[in-house]
């Protein structure tokens, strides 16, 4: 396992590769992707109430789960770890994978690890996952304002990110901020691939995400290189309260595991973080 210390970080003049390399080598094989960004790119598109409290040139990394995460990380995690009540099993797996990768690769660095489901005391999300994915170049965030002559009158439409390889078959899981790592002009802000370019397709995407998200058609707005397996689809289409029973029926949990309390995102939607 490659380890990065403050000393090696200084020697490599805090290279982005010095962070992305070790993180990627831990997390890619588990079905995650990692994308670097500068805190300033994120803060510059958000109002102060959502800002990360770090300098503009601090390095951050956004972590996505791809369709492979379910088979490569989640199912093995269930076999080797015991699920802790009350939190969601996928959240526990992601936390385990990301925290292990960070502590093993960067034992001496201060890293602020924020997960998609975590809230601040103000009840705001700890980071806006879609904004982070967009400014890192990982996945274009299609928002209402990206549609000219909107057909929805005054209605608020939630935006959605589309990944160039996985369409909507992915999730945005975590943001890591490397407080000790300052990045200079070597990191250039990439434009995310605009894979839903026409007004008509953007309308179709936002309507699918807002009005029919349960049928998952928004995920197929562009053809994905890989989508969720049958088993993964069955898991995510099962209401969260019944997922432990499903895992038990697959023989992946001992019989006596109790039901989890659900996080607010899941309570509202009864759907989970698929
Ligand atoms: C709260 C929440 C919900 C709430 C409210 C939704 C919302 N968007 O507000 C509810 C419960 C309704 C919900 C539902 C769902 N959600 Co939800 N949800 C979240 C959560 C936790 C926070 C979103 C939030 O509060 N945003 C705050 C608002 C104000 O942000 P905003 O609208 O983006 O506005 C900001 C930007 O516009 C930015 N901005 C301004 N100008 C510019 C310019 C640029 C260029 C950029 C980039 C940004 C930018 O400034 C604004 C803030 O001032 C995120 C995870 C996370 N931590 O971010 C997941 C998340 C958005 N949800 C997700 C999903 C998939 C869903 C569901 C399909 C259910 C599911 N889990 O399968 C449904 C579908 C939505 C629907 N039709 O109801 C995914 C979306 C993935 C994607 N591909 O985009 C996320 C990212 C979770 C994840 N782990 O991947 N969700």
TrEMBL record:
Name this polypeptide is given: Cyanocobalamin reductase / alkylcobalamin dealkylase
Record's subcellular location: Cytoplasm
GO cellular component entries: cytoplasm
GO terms for biological process, alphabetical: cobalamin metabolic process
Alphabetical keyword list: Cobalamin, Cobalt, Cytoplasm, FAD, Flavoprotein, FMN, NADP, Oxidoreductase
Pfam families referenced in this protein's UniProt entry, alphabetically: MMACHC
EC id: 1.16.1.6, 2.5.1.151
Molecular-function GO term, any one: FAD binding
Family: Belongs to the MMACHC family.
Cofactor: FAD; FMN
Main location: cytoplasm
Organism: Poecilia mexicana
Reactions performed catalytically: 2 cob(II)alamin-[cyanocobalamin reductase] + 2 hydrogen cyanide + NADP(+) = 2 cyanocob(III)alamin + 2 apo-[cyanocobalamin reductase] + NADPH + H(+); apo-[alkylcobalamin reductase] + methylcob(III)alamin + glutathione = S-methyl glutathione + cob(I)alamin-[alkylcobalamin reductase] + H(+); apo-[alkylcobalamin reductase] + an R-cob(III)alamin + glutathione = cob(I)alamin-[alkylcobalamin reductase] + an S-substituted glutathione + H(+); apo-[alkylcobalamin reductase] + adenosylcob(III)alamin + glutathione = S-adenosylglutathione + cob(I)alamin-[alkylcobalamin reductase] + H(+)
